[in-house]
Amino acid sequence: MTNTVSGAASPITAATTAATASSAPAASNSQLDKDTFLKLLVAQMRYQDPSKPADTSQFLSQTAQFTEVERMEQLVKQQGELLAAQLQLSASNLVGKTISYTGPDGTDAVGVVTSASFGSAPTLKVGNTDVPLSSVKEVTSAASTGTEPTEGN
């Protein structure tokens, strides 16, 4: 039994190749983006066999999948923004607190946080040292300058 390939397969293959080539950065991450999905969907519609049109339910299913992927991308972006805000809040709450951390040379150190900065990742300032928030091991209240309360008074 032999299988023949119709002439319509060639344009679809060309469209698929073009869509994949135009999204090379996304493909390098082994992921297809929404633009590639749309290009493939349009190519499928454009080169379909007129005697056998695409199934409407299949088209609606693909459209629903596209919408779902788009919403998931939005959700991932919002979660990333929320995480960044939480890390910034955590770092700013450490100002004035005593922390123990792993220093840049790999040794453990202790100091009072004097400021927090928010570049690509939250960073705390302890003396003259920039400490990434991820290096913090322990947080305690800053040492008080007054007398400590005693029991029995």
Chain-wise SSE layout:
Blueprint (H helix, E strand, L loop, with lengths): L8 H14 L1 H5 L5 H13 L9 H38 L4 E5 L5 E11 L3 E5 L2 E4 L3 E5 L13
Helix pairs in contact: 1-3, 3-4
Structure summary:
The protein contains 4 helices and 5 strands; from the N terminus they run ααααβββββ.
The coarse silhouette is rod-shaped
The largest sheet is: 5 strands, antiparallel
**Gap from first CA to last CA:** 100 Å
Q: Which parts are unreliable, with pLDDT below 50 for 5 consecutive residues or more?
A: 1-29, 145-153
> In sequence order, what are the helices and strands, one letter per element?
HHHHEEEEE
Mean pLDDT: 76
Structural class: alpha+beta
Give the number of helices: 4
Strand residue percentage: 15-25%
Strand order of the largest sheet: 4-3-2-1-5
Q: What is the number of beta strands? A: 5
Using only C-alpha atoms, the radius of gyration works out to 29 Å
Helix content: 40-55%
Total number of distinct structural domains:
2
Please tell me about this protein's structure:
The protein is 46% helix and 20% strand. The termini are far apart. The protein has a five-stranded antiparallel beta sheet. The chain has two domains: 9-88, no CATH class; 94-140, SH3 type barrels (Roll). The model is unreliable at 1-29 and 145-153 (pLDDT under 50). The protein has 153 residues and is α+β, with helices and mostly antiparallel strands. The radius of gyration is 29 Å and the shape is rod-shaped. Strand 2 and strand 3 (122-126) form a beta hairpin.
